[in-house]
Amino acid sequence: MRAWTVDRPRPVEEDPLRLAERSVPVPADDELLVRVRACGVCRTDLHVTEGDLPVRRPGVVPGHEVVGTVAGTGSAVTGFAPGDRVGVAWLRWTDGTCAHCRRGAENLCPGSRYTGWDADGGYATHTTVPAAFAHRLPEDVDDVALAPLLCAGIIGYRALRRTGLPPGGRLGLYGFGGSAHLCAQVALAEGAVVHVLTRGADARRLALGLGATSASDAYAAPPEPLDGAILFAPVGDLVPVALRALDRGGVLALAGIHLSDVPPLRYETDLFYEKELRSVTANTRQDAREFLALAARYGVRATTHPYPLSRAPQALRDLKAGRFDGAAVLVDDLS
Ligand SMILES: [Zn+2]
Ligand SMILES: [Zn+2]
């Protein structure tokens, strides 16, 4: 099989990825062998490849938005058969025994492991996944359109639920990239009034086209107070801006894995009247199941930009430089 491996993490302009010839992995007893058909390119892949995240597996194969078919099963696997279409996402394993796992918060498990960081992911023709962490996928959506749902979509969905938005509530989205444009589709389908606050003119056009009520600059005040808001932009300066835009009792969820420093908050304007600030950390398998089911029901679609798998390094360079709208997806041309 062929796989892109992170040779030594460094800026993508210095070609850290190497195309390797490897033997097809043998799935462990509880794992599936997956033939990769499409793999989304997530910003976290850039963090793994450039070394913003510490090395957890030398020579790792990045990629955690995998759509593929089962090509083999370990001896203890039940419920999956060769040919089944499955998704492989970021959350790869949790211990199931710690206090967080036992209360349904496996996203906080200190022992959790991740695809494309702790274990080889989907920038390859084949990969493996523990069967308990593989996702069944809706049937009527093509591989490329599904791939970005497996990270960007699931995280945006968890962030939306973290706002506790009431039915018909007013939602503010700060930043409007891959995750936000999927989250907006769920919120709109559920009857929310969506206001998008972002810098980019193209993103504002996309937001209005999807059905947002308004789209303005990130630092502008929305046209009405918000019941909930999600900060997708990794900009801490926007935290007090978004808190001030909330109505009494409103909730701000911080969706990013990275955020620049948050400036001092003023209790009176930013937090009083029971405004709440919540972070979002990864996701549970339950989040993924709920989101994939709703995405199928609501017809949630990612705006995609396909690349052949052989051009994975170019996809990462283009992502870093912001050269495309929507989500890049690698499609196998190396088998
Ligand atoms: Zn745990
Ligand atoms: Zn991701």
TrEMBL record:
<keyword id="KW-0479">Metal-binding</keyword>
<dbReference type="InterPro" id="IPR013154">
    <property type="entry name" value="ADH-like_N"/>
</dbReference>
<keyword id="KW-0560">Oxidoreductase</keyword>
<keyword id="KW-0862">Zinc</keyword>
<dbReference type="InterPro" id="IPR014187">
    <property type="entry name" value="ADH_Zn_typ-2"/>
</dbReference>
<feature type="domain" description="Enoyl reductase (ER)">
    <location>
        <begin position="13"/>
        <end position="330"/>
    </location>
</feature>
<dbReference type="InterPro" id="IPR011032">
    <property type="entry name" value="GroES-like_sf"/>
</dbReference>
<protein>
    <recommendedName>
        <fullName>alcohol dehydrogenase</fullName>
        <ecNumber>1.1.1.1</ecNumber>
    </recommendedName>
</protein>
<dbReference type="InterPro" id="IPR020843">
    <property type="entry name" value="ER"/>
</dbReference>
<dbReference type="InterPro" id="IPR036291">
    <property type="entry name" value="NAD(P)-bd_dom_sf"/>
</dbReference>
<dbReference type="InterPro" id="IPR002328">
    <property type="entry name" value="ADH_Zn_CS"/>
</dbReference>
<dbReference type="GO" id="GO:0016491">
    <property type="term" value="F:oxidoreductase activity"/>
</dbReference>
<dbReference type="Pfam" id="PF08240">
    <property type="entry name" value="ADH_N"/>
</dbReference>
<comment type="similarity">
    <text>Belongs to the zinc-containing alcohol dehydrogenase family.</text>
</comment>
